[in-house]
Specification:
The protein is an alpha+beta fold. It is built from 2 helices and 7 strands. It has helices spanning 16-23, 121-150; strands spanning 4-12, 40-41, 55-60, 68-78, 82-89, 94-104, 107-117. It has a 7-stranded antiparallel beta sheet, with helices on one face.
Length: 154
Amino acid sequence: MAVYTFRKTQFIPTSIDLVWDFISSPHNLKKITPASMGFEVITRDLPKKMYAGMIIAYHVRPLMGIRTTWVTEITHINELKYFVDEQRFGPYTMWHHQHLIEPVEGGVMMTDIIDYQPPMGFLGAIANSLIIRKKLEEIFLFRKTKLEAYFGIQ
C-alpha cells in the first residue's frame, strides 16, 4: 500500500503574524475550501485558535457529492512556525498534513506537505492517479487564489 506525498508552496507578501493569525483559526478553513467540497465544520463552540489535541469534525463531499464525515486532530503546534493535522476518521486510510510557514525576504513562504494513503489498496492507487491527486491540485489552486485575495495580492 503506497503512501503519497502532495506538496505546495505559496509566497505571501505580508507578516508572519498575519499569516499565522489566519491559518491557525479553525474558522477560516471553510473560507479557503471550494464550495463544491460541501465543506461544513460540525464541531460546535470552536475556539479562535487551534491547539494541540484539538479535534475538529467536518462534513465534506469530496467525490460525486457523497457526504462523508472527516475528523481531524491537531497533533502539533509551534506558534508562528507550523501545525499538523491528522485524520482520525474519514475518507483516507492515512492523512498527515503539515502546515509550515517561515519568514522570507518580503513576506512569508507557506508550505503544505500532505502524506496520505487512499483506502482500498490497489483501487485506491488507481483512484489517486485518476482523481485524488487532481482534486488536491484543484483544492490548493482555489486556496492559493483565496489567500491572495484575502491578503490583497494582485
